[in-house]
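Title: Prediction job returns without error message
Component: structure pipeline
Severity: low
Priority: P3
Assignee: unassigned

Description:
Job completed but the reporter wants confirmation the result is attached to the right record. Sequence as submitted:
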Amino acid sequence: MTVQIAGVASTEFGEHPDSSTRELFTDAALEALEDASLSVHDIEELYAGNFIGDLTDDQAHVGAMLADYIGAREAASMRTESACASASSAARSGAQAIAAGDADVALVGGVEMMHASGLGEVTDALANAADNEYENEAGLTFPGIYALMAQAYMREFDADQEDLAAVAVKNYENGTTNPIAQRLEETDVENVLDSPPVATPLNLQDCCPITDGASAAVLVSAAYAEEHGLETTVSFEGSGQSSDSLALQDRPDLARTRAAERAADQAYDSAGISPDDVDVVELHDCFTIAEILAIESLGFFERGEGARGAVEGETAVDGRIPVNTSGGLLAKGHPVGATGVAQLVEITKQLEGRHPNQVDDPTVGLTHTVGGSGASCVVNVLRAGGE
């Protein structure tokens, strides 16, 4: 059964001191429903990504809470949690429900309120995505974990900090024209290298910010879209998901994300495409090294060649394979439970020709979201064309 995207929306990303988890999600959900020309009463199933809400909000049972608050109390509801890949898992679950014939309308989305808690509390909560016994207890946080991955990559492939900085420069520039982005300033290589050190070789501008935000998408079956006269122009074409060891120490290669490789292979197979068919990508750049690892895992560059992607302009908006035209996590922001569907929103807008950094006539788009340091990964494929 063909799965169509009927509507999408994201809130602004940044700080929302006067809002809450349920209010942010409602804003995105109702806007996505309006974009789809549907109402909350049409929702049969709701899948909501949320990672740290039960720790920072003292609120579990998030799926039912959000369904209640938006007025979809009779819908089947579920919170999906896969660290930073929580919303991508929500999108995958909703698409699978429709493809299986279990529902005709699914609202998928995600939300995270991160600024309401202090930096220390948020850092502790995010650390739950790492291995507590072998990483957290040793004092590692995610900047430190990704710094180890960066060091391994730079040592193996003779890359340098300037290569990492080029990723930040590209994504910051893209973020300046995205109306929902958190960081709206450009930067240059010198500024990235001069920004405060966080965990060698990563400096502050190599790292994504903490973010409040929500995103939502309405998925429908093709039959439902035709029956109700919905003008859908993007299809959910394929998906893949895989896992890896939770602790970095248990992986044979720190400069490789094997879960992403497997998820990508599954997604390509299910969509009937290859990496060469992809026109635009939104991927997980929580740190600059993460984008370099991702474009290799997704098959756009050979291993060891990803460091030249941003340096040589191949991943620019007008490059061979445009990556993170939204500004990515580095500039758009990273409300962890919402990020995967936020990527889907951006790709949908690209395929519909209404993105602020529009790529020339894209047909196939891809999203890639990593949980933790790569212990989980979801890759989703979208295609222009609807019922």
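Comment from assignee: result matches the submitted record. Residues 3-118+210-235 form a domain with the Peroxisomal Thiolase; Chain A, domain 1 fold (CATH 3.40.47.10).
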